[in-house]
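Please, structure for the following, as tokens.
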Amino acid sequence: MDIPERLAWLRASSEGRSWLEGLPARINRCVGRWNLSLGGPFPTAYTSLTIPGRRLDGTEVVLKIPFPGRESEHEALALSHWDGDGAVKLLEDDRSLGAFLIERCVPGTPLSNTGQDVALDVLSSLLPRLWKPATDPPFRSLADEASWWASHLRENWERAGRPFDKRLVDAALDVLGSLPGSQGEPVLLHQDLHGDNVLAAQREPWLAIDPKPLVGEREFGLAPVVRSFELGVGRNEVRHRLDRLASELGLDRERARLWCVAQTVAWYSPWHIEIATWLLDM
């Protein structure tokens, strides 16, 4: 089986190379463990190997083998917690294999294909379903994650050659120091709920995939949607996503804005950083 080229970045570290080299044997073990017939892997996954397949009874599934990391650590647990309510169902989980099975979304069209306002209609209904009561442990708290981001944010910015304005670093650090201690009710958060992580399905019209779960206040849950350039690129589009979701969901717009600035800077990507700059003045 050919490994998708988008996983090539893992070859830069010894841990990544070891994980990639072990994939063929791990896939074979999963096939035997769950009696799978597999197709070719999805080409778009960046931090995991995801492969469509079928079980002996004909059930369509996806085998997911995430590269071990902080964000993927509790993914299967989050899917289990949601139990199919607004997200794909977890069908099997074997921690010794570092792999799990989920239901397959068919046809699997991403929500981003619908246009921004239709997508926001869906997300306005989906987000409250995902915001189920949860605790840390077993999940990691938003407060802990904010502290971890803050501990290396400036160093990472320096090491990357100062790729964006220092005022974004200062603003993010201010948020990460001030907001965690004054949060509202803790719920389970999907911190990567962008327009390509909600797919068209048959059991429900739309289901969330690929959670990177945290436990924290609801306002943080708007960050990935506001930042989702898949739903529309531009200052007005970003403002519209923030204003509409904060209003419809009864959330504190200012806290949602600040959390989006902080997470976008902490998760630095050249495609997103301009959005954080716009948000500073919204």
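The chain has two domains: 5-103, 111-280. The domain at 111-280 is CATH 3.90.1200.10 (Aminoglycoside 3'-phosphotransferase; Chain: A, domain 2).
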